[in-house]
Amino acid sequence: MLFYTCENITKPLSHSLQDELKAQVASKDKDLNAKDVEIAEVKHRLHEQTDKNESLDIDLEPERVKAATAKEAKQRADEARDISTSALNVARKNYAEAQAIVDTLLSDSEWIRNRGVAAMDMAVATLIDASRVVGHRGGYLECAHHVEDAFGQEFDTSHCSMTDQADAVLAHAEEVYDHLSLPVMDLVTEALKHDD
């Protein structure tokens, strides 16, 4: 019979289509199962990495504490260095000031030893000598004046060894004495101003 019904034609076709679909579904199931295995493996690796990271975080905590402690120690060491540098600068300044005073005292004591006492002695001796000369001259001139009054004639004072410049010499000696300075006295005066 040449005559086929629709049902006869579609039946073998539908079986073959069903078989093919079943084969495709089975293949897809296999692929899904493989993907499930891959996903499970990736999840397992992810959990391992997470555990490892947590372990590393735990291991890093002492290192973080050490780093913070080292940073604090460095900061304290820097502060201590700054303080000691400041103290050293103050000590250097104080030493320089003390050395300047010592140098001045040594210079002044040397001046007094070599020249100061001698200069003071010379100034006093010159002042005494000049005042004596002025006194003698004044006394001589006064005496000559009395003699002139008594005898009524002028007394010759030109031969007097005391010159008219004796007053000028005395004034100069007084000036030198009045302005005689001992540098050490300035230091003594300055030191007396301080309590310590």
What letter string, H or E per element, gives the SSE order?
HHH
Number of strands: 0
Mean pLDDT across every amino acid position: 76
Assign an overall shape. rod-shaped
Taken as a percent bin, the fraction of beta residues is: under 5%
Number of helices: 3
Q: State the assembly state of the protein chains.
A: single chain
Tell me about the largest β-sheet.
none
Report on the structure:
There is one protein chain. This protein starts with 5 loop residues before the first helix and ends with a helix. It has helices at residues 6-151, 166-178, 183-192. Helix 1 (6-151) packs antiparallel against helix 2. With 196 residues, it is mostly helical. It is 86% helix and 0% strand.
Descriptive labels:
mainly alpha; 196 residues
What's the helix and strand layout?
Elements: H1 6-151, H2 166-178, H3 183-192
Summarize, please:
It is built from three helices and no strands. The protein has 196 residues and is mainly alpha-helical.
